[in-house]
What we know:
It is a single chain. The chain is α+β, with helices and mostly antiparallel strands. The chain has one domain. Helices cover 21% and strands 20% of the residues. It contains 2 helices and 4 strands, in the order βαβββα. It has helices spanning 13-27, 69-75, and strands at residues 4-7, 33-38, 43-47, 59-64. It has a 4-stranded antiparallel sheet with strand order 1-3-2-4, with helices on one face. A hairpin with a 4-residue loop joins β2 and β3 (43-47). α1 (13-27) packs across α2. The radius of gyration is 19 Å and the shape is globular.
Amino acid sequence: MQVRxxxxxxxxxxxWSQLQSLASQLRVFHGYRTLWLDEERQQVVHSEPDEMLExxxxxxxxxxxxxxAEALAVVLGVVPACEVEPRIAPxxxxxxxxxxxxxx
Length: 104
């Protein structure tokens, strides 16, 4: 079992650094990771999704795939989703010769 801790804290620069550190840890995994809260140690740990750590006293938070620090802040409740600036993707152009609404 591979479990990595990240200490939790209030919203400060140190918390942002911890979120970035956790995001970096999660980035090396190519699949999903499950986040757990160890309330006794006040740490967030991650494991393989099929590992059930509730029996060890941990509380399930979410299952994620390579989130960035902003996504982790929302998942962990550090900031509400409405405070994270949405990233707007550039418009997707249809292939040439395809027109929306035109009969085929």
